[in-house]
Specification:
The complex is a heterodimer of chains A (293) and B (271). Chain A has 293 residues and is mainly α. Helix content of chain A is 75%, strand content 0%. Chain B is 71% helix and 1% strand. With 271 residues, chain B is mostly helical. The chains are: A mainly alpha (293), B mainly alpha (271). Chain B: It comes from Nocardioides immobilis.
């Protein structure tokens, strides 16, 4: 009797623990959802900036059309699986993603780490890394509206482009774009913001990131027309996961099976880059020194 | 006269010398800056090289010939970026209201802004352009004559002036755009990208924008064609490469008009 009563009590306690965990998780999801929405809203205040970005995207897009179409034609109309129509899709989707995928290496939290404001962030009941990345993703998602979609529309109407054969490409492509945005934010956090716990000046890292990421993400030239060794080098980095793979999936350059493989690669990079960023953040928190008072 | 010139330029020389010294004082940081700046140049060249990895000829030019176009354009851009590139910081000054400080000094605003900084790290990038230019001049079969040497010098000076003018033009436009700074990037940095391409692949609208309105084709492509003895596209005359100084003068007319309008429009930071 006594034993069975004890067991019931234990079960009850376990059930309550599970319930509490569920509430906690729901609360956490809600907090990060709010941060995401706040990032999205914040970006909507900079419409003129978004317009400037669209002008820049379109101008660069037209120059890319000129040089890359000429390359495809000089190669006899087909280059590593790219014809003119598929090249056009690559150009305009990648230009459209430029406002959302972070290839510039600027992230708000970097300034807060540098001037010590991050000490306040550590006092909040939130993970500093997760909150910073969520804010960036929210801002990026907003940018798809004034910069992403118009770029693709302008390209489609003015130049024309190929569309994927399989409707699943759109869904998988959307997931892949979201992952690409998150990977870019997490990588910028890892290589530009987090070293700020130890370095005084991270501008050099930001410039280095900007130079390398665009090239290896396939911003100017698809990495598939690189020489083999350079293509492999690019694939050994998270950069193609930010832009090249999402473009490949949504343009229908790869079929559904290959898309799933690319999505798995993206997930692995997100997990890896995220975990490393978490390690650095924890170590940085212990190392953090804030001057003045 | 020489004396008064020396006296008049002394404040600018003092500022520039101090900026140059301050950049070199943190040696490790300066070395990283130099290295990443050089990498910028190398990757820009690689962007063109990977295309030629797939095809022999683009827009009627081979890779060795494109090296000449790239070298001329990128060398001029890097030098202009080093000396005029910080005009890009104008939106920051405008937002923070710190531009007003310049108004307190008895010197012309543009001259102060230009001489307020010099980015020595960009020398590394200029070096990449210079190497590409020298290689381009050596490997190509150029029928050297005094006229060829003269055109080379004219092209470098005019190309530098054109890119510098682009920075000033963009600076003037910032007074109106402030948050929309990226709009001008489309033409300043887009212009650099355009300048290193074989312009023969452009369509007519691109020629209108980057061939003539912002005369980017005159910084590298058209002078290089004359040096190489290759016919110009669009039925342009052979001597069009010699028109680079005219293009540079046009850029500066635009730049100074834009700057003047911008400064007149400025109402102060409200401090």
């Amino acid at each position: 009797m006594k034993a069975s009563f004890g067991r019931t009590g234990r079960n009850l306690a376990r059930g309550a623990g599970r319930l509490r965990l569920l509430f906690l998780m729901r609360g956490t999801i809600r907090v990060y959802w709010r941060i995401l929405v706040a990032g999205f809203r914040r970006q909507s205040a900079y419409l003129l900036a978004a317009f400037g970005g669209l002008v820049a995207n379109t101008t660069f897009g037209l120059l890319k059309v000129a040089i890359l179409f000429a390359t495809v034609r000089a190669a006899g109309g087909e280059l590593q699986g790219y014809d003119v129509a598929l090249m056009s899709t690559y150009i305009w989707v990648s230009q459209g993603l430029l406002g959302s995928v972070n290839l510039f290496g600027r992230i708000d939290i970097a300034d807060r780490i540098k001037d010590g404001d991050v000490a306040v962030d550590f006092l909040r009941p939130l993970d500093v890394q997760a909150a910073a990345i969520t804010t960036e993703v929210g801002k990026s998602l907003f940018n798809l509206i004034p910069r992403g979609i118009p770029s693709v529309l302008i390209g489609g109407l003015v130049v024309g482009m190929a569309l994927p054969d399989h409707p699943a490409s759109y869904l998988l492509g959307a997931v892949s774009i979201l992952l690409g945005i998150a990977i870019s934010a997490a990588t910028v956090y890892l290589v530009v913001a987090a070293p700020g716990f130890w370095l005084v000046e991270t501008r050099g890292l930001q410039i280095l990131y900007m130079v390398v990421s665009g090239f290896l993400a396939g911003l100017f030239v698809p990495i598939w027309i690189f020489p083999k060794w350079l293509e492999m080098l690019a694939q050994a980095t998270p950069f193609p996961s930010m832009m090249m793979y999402p473009v490949d999936i949504i343009s229908g350059r790869v079929d559904v099976t290959e898309s799933l493989v690319l999505l798995a690669v993206q997930l692995a990079w997100l997990a890896g880059v995220g975990a490393l960023g978490q390690v650095l953040t924890r170590a940085g928190r212990r190392h953090l020194e804030v001057q003045g008072g | 006269m020489a004396d008064s010139l020396g006296a008049r330029t002394r404040p600018y020389r003092a500022v520039l010398a101090s900026r140059a010294r301050s950049q070199r004082s943190y040696r490790a940081s300066f070395a990283v800056d130099l290295a990443s700046s050089m990498l910028v140049g190398v990757i820009e060249l690689a962007e063109i090289w990977v295309l030629f990895h797939n095809v022999v000829e683009l827009g009627g030019l081979e890779f060795s010939q494109i090296l000449l176009v790239f070298g001329l354009a990128d060398l001029c851009f890097s030098l202009a970026d080093m000396t005029f590139g910080h005009c890009d910081n104008l939106p920051t000054y405008l937002r923070a209201g710190t531009l007003d400080v310049f108004y307190l000094r008895p010197q012309p605003l543009l001259l102060q802004l230009v001489t307020s900084d010099i980015s020595l790290r960009r020398l590394a990038r200029a070096a990449v352009g210079a190497v590409a230019l020298v290689v381009g001049l050596t490997v190509n079969d150029i029928a050297w004559s005094p006229a060829h040497v003269l055109l080379l010098l004219v092209a470098i000076v005019s190309g530098y002036a054109m890119f510098a003018g682009m920075f000033v033009w963009a600076g003037g436009a910032q007074f109106f755009l402030v948050e929309g700074a990226e709009t001008t990037n489309a033409f300043v940095y887009g212009g650099r990208y355009a300048a290193t391409q074989p312009a023969s692949v452009w369509n007519r609208p691109l020629w209108a924008v980057f061939g003539f309105f912002f005369p980017m084709a005159f910084t590298g492509f058209l002078p290089a064609l004359w040096l190489l003895g290759v016919e110009a596209p669009l039925g342009l005359p052979d001597w069009v490469g010699w028109c680079a100084p005219v293009a540079a003068a046009w850029t500066w007319v635009m730049a100074l008009v834009s700057w003047r309008l911008g400064v007149r429009h400025y109402q102060g930071g409200g401090g």
